[in-house]
Amino acid sequence: MKKIMSIPNYSEGKDRGVIEKILDAFRGKKGVKLLDFQPDEDHNRTVVEVVGEPEALKTSILESVKIASELIDMREHKGAHPRMGAVDVIPFVPVQNATVEDCKALAEEVGEAIGKLNIPVYMYEDNARCEERVNLANIIKGQYEGFYEKIKEAEWKPDFGPQVMNEKFGCVAVGARFHLVAFNVNLNTSDVEIAKAIARKVRYSGGGLRHVKGIGLKLEEKNLAQVSMNLVNYEEGPIYQALENVKMEAKRYGISIAGTELIGLVPVDALVDTFKYYTGAHEFKTSQIIEMNLLEAE
Length: 298
Hints:
- There is one protein chain.
- Strands 1, 2, 3, 4, 5, 6 and 7 form a 7-stranded mixed sheet that branches. Strands 9-10-8-11 form a 4-stranded antiparallel sheet.
- It starts with a strand and ends with a helix.
- It is built from 9 helices and 11 strands.
- Helix 1 runs antiparallel to helix 2, helix 2 runs parallel beside helix 3 and helix 6 crosses helix 7.
- With about 300 residues, it is an alpha+beta fold.
């Protein structure tokens, strides 16, 4: 039986009533399991992680998009995290007996179906039609407000749906990709310009780590600045490298790290790799973890 994971991001992190209605699209559905969800009030965003059989997952994802289109109005949305739609991005990742090709096929079906809802859809990562659309950061540049003009440009014609901005919903990116690790580092400062400067140094587009995307944000509730990162290949760009690079850049401003966040689920190998680095236990194996042995024994 094939199982695929999806990690849709919804542009609502404050209204628990809206969030619960979106989550209902995944709860109690045959062939689908809601694994995790993390609302963030500062980002005003909720990241959902769900796994399921392809057809059942498709049905639940589309139901959640319809719910979001009814309950989220992007004309009124404010939040620290870059966004362009009520459902901002819908990635698909192979999990059990599934391949990247399976995920690409499912992404195409979902993208086409969303387009029929009068929502502009951009296919990204492994489903990208051109090099400019592989990187989500290129697509989302300008955010919701900027898309009113951006979408009119020939090179930014949506892959599905109308070439006109959906004022209430915005637009969405859909595609298959490698499992991404969302890793944030909070700084002992409220100066967001410092966080932005550090993010520029750490991310690949600024000359930093090859598999890191990063931005600087202000966390109003905590009165802290944050370097928010996506590690798009944790095997070649591990968590500890991202953290150590942020620490190194923070020193030039005389500030320290206030804490870190892992958003959503993370592969155990990504954690083991970081454990090895900080403890020096280079021969440590995943099989030494009791819970992993219990899972393998089932």
